[in-house]
Amino acid sequence: MGKVVYDPFLNKIRMEYGTITRMSAIYDPVIGRERANYSTMTGGGFTPIGIPGLNTWYRSDLGITMDTGVKIWADQSGGGHHLIQNTGSLQPSLLTNQLNGFSALSFDGVDDFMQTLLFTYGPPATIFAVFKVRNYVNATSIYDGSVTFTGTLRMQPASPSVVTFAGTNLFDATDLPINSYTLSTVIFNGASSVIQFGNATQVTGDTGANAIGGFTLGSRTDFVDNSQIDVVEIIITNTAATTTDRNNVKAYILSRYGI
Fold first, then answer.
1. pLDDT at position 26, please?
2. In whole numbers, what is the pLDDT of the chain averaged over residues?
3. CATH 2.60.120.200 residue window(s) in the chain
4. From the candidate CATH numbers 3.30.70.330, 3.40.50.300, 2.60.120.200, 2.60.120.290, the one assigned to the domain spanning 48-257
5. Residue 235: pLDDT above 90?
6. pTM, two decimal places
7. Which residues are paired to 237 by β-bridges?
8. What is the Cα–Cα distance from 164 to 142, expressed in whole angstroms?
9. Angle CA(199)–CA(100)–CA(44) in degrees, nearest 5?
10. Is residue 113 within 8 Å of residue 226, measured between CB atoms?
11. SS3 192
C-alpha cells in the first residue's frame, strides 16, 4: 500500500510513502499481442511540505535575496514567514559548497541576525535545524522566538551544553557538535519536550508553556547574544512532531545532506 500526492514544489505527483503497483498493457512481439505489464512506484520522495502542521521552511538553495549579504530568506512553506535583515552590515554571508554541495548562511557572532514578523505558533511546536556551531561562546543564541528566551536554543553554560526555554529551562549537556553540521530537533511541548542532535540519545523534560510567536535566527530576540553559526535548512511546525514525522525528516536530511 502507498499514498500518492501532488507536490507543488516539485510540480509533479510523488510518492508520500509505501509502494503502489501499476498495471499497463504493452505489445509483446514474442507472443504477437498485448500483455499486462506490472511496475511499482516506491516512496522516498518525502519533502517537508508533507509534514503535518508545517508553518515555516527555509532552504539555503531557495528564496535567497542578496544585498551586502543575505537580505531575505524566503519561507518555502507558503506561510509567508520570511526571515529579513534590511541593514547590510547585519546581514549574514552566503557561503557556497558547504554541506554536500549546498550553501550555508553564515552569521558572524558579532551583530548578524535575521528575524520574521510576528506570527503565532506553539507550544506545541517543533523546530528542525541543520546548522554548524563554528565556535562555542557561552550565553549566545542559535535562535529565539518573538519574546526573549521563548522558543530559544542557546549555548549555555559551557561547551557543549545547550538550553531550550519557553518558560522553563531544559538542558542537553553533552550532545552539541562543535564545528560540524548537525540536525537538531527541538520539540516545545510543556513537560513532554525534547532536545536531540542527530541520532544521539534525546533529552526529555519541561520547556514551559509560553507562546513562542515569530522566529529570530543568529541572536536573541532583542538582537544581542549573537552566535557564530552556519545554517543550511530550518523546518518549523505548530505541532509536536510524531515519531513518524521525525523519522521522515531525518531520512530527508540524510538523503539531501549526508548527515
1. 54
2. 88
3. 48-257
4. 2.60.120.200
5. yes
6. 0.83
7. 54, 126
8. 10
9. 65
10. yes
11. helix
